[in-house]
Write a structure and sequence with these properties.
Number of strands: 29
Helix content: 10-25%
CATH superfamily of the largest domain: YVTN repeat-like/Quinoprotein amine dehydrogenase
Largest sheet: 5 strands, mixed
Structural class: mainly beta
Oligomer: single chain
CATH architecture of the largest domain: 7 Propeller
Number of helices: 5
Radius of gyration: 45 Å
Length: 451
Amino acid sequence: MDAGSSSSLNCNSTSKCPLQEQFHRRRKTRENLDRFIPNRSAMDFDYAHYMLTEGRKGKENPSVLSPSTEAYLKLLANTFHMNRSRILAFKNKPPTPAELIPREFLSPVRQFKPSKPKRHIPQTSERTLDAPDIIDDYYLNLLDWGSSNILAIGLGSTVHFWDGSNGSTSELVTVDDENGPVTSISWAADGQHIAIGLNNSDVQLWDSTANQLLRTLRGGHQSRVGSLAWNNHILTTGGRDGKIINNDVRVRSHIVETYRGHHQEVCGLKWSASGQQLASGGNDNMLYIWDRSMSSSNSRSQWLHRLEDHTAAVKALAWCPFQSNLLASGGGGNDLCIRFWNTHTGACLNSVDTGSQVCALLWNKKERELLSSHGFSQNQLTLWKYPSMVKIAELTGHTSRVLFMAQSPDGCTVATAAGDETLKFWKVFGTTPEVKNAAPKEPFPHFSRIR
């Protein structure tokens, strides 16, 4: 029984299984087929029904139709548009393809502007003047260009002026031998008053328009004053004694702050555009950042940052005109590097080995460019693209190290003075429209030698 029952169950199962599998296969196949589902709104069912049923009755036996019937069928066909050849048809037209480029962008008015033409940089100086008796000393600062377009230069114990508007020259003062020579020069922002640092540690303040000595600042330093920097009514002085002094020129007791950090001569001083931070470089290879908010009257003010990356004297300093916390500094003969600093954090952003002594730095006021002047061995000017620091141009002409640089008030011309006793003018930063359209000027006279 068990075997028979088992056999019977097996037979029944084998006889039913093929049908079930076939049914499931058909069902699954139907579910997987893609069906065409027409859009009913695009169909004319009355016309379709007529064409499938009644439409061809007359064509099968056209001879039995009466003239009236033919006329009726013709009218009916015109009324219901039965002369069409298709039953199913799209009623809506396909959408117009979108334009890949809108037509307004193809019009001449919306065309892109042409790229800026490349600026021509003259490879030679525009003019050269004699600068006799200029002191070939890396640590001094003997050239400055004021806002009134007067260039001041210290030649030995004498300060000379050159007027950029007409090319005339004049002499401001010749100091006594016991006080001289002149060791630093700096114009105030008004372009009228000028400060002169001397070898005997004095600092003189002059009114250039009246050619009059206003006062002499004494008692701050014990040796020569080689660097000066103005900050409104504050004149900052740096000496060989390593001290940095803020002098308020409005009051009798002019010493208001003293910064102590350098152990050797201070040869570089520059205030930021905001007047809040002061950068100082020295012969001790140190670079300091001082903040006025941290200073107190007649005290040894603490620095904000003490930067030790340079391995030679730091004289070349330049604050960036388009980024207030960016400072560029250059090192002397054992360093050869230009370094960039974030003065908020004290971080060194970049360092570039120039291959020669860095004497001075100037930023272009219109483009992101930096100009550096160098000493041994090429005594060249190098124009750099910032921040890539790719060389744009190298200008040669001096036969001795280019110690001093000054920029014209319009930012286009740079004056350089070197140990070869020449003063050169370079159109390295472009040309203003006024200068470009002006008539050529007469040759500029040389500075006369002072005996």
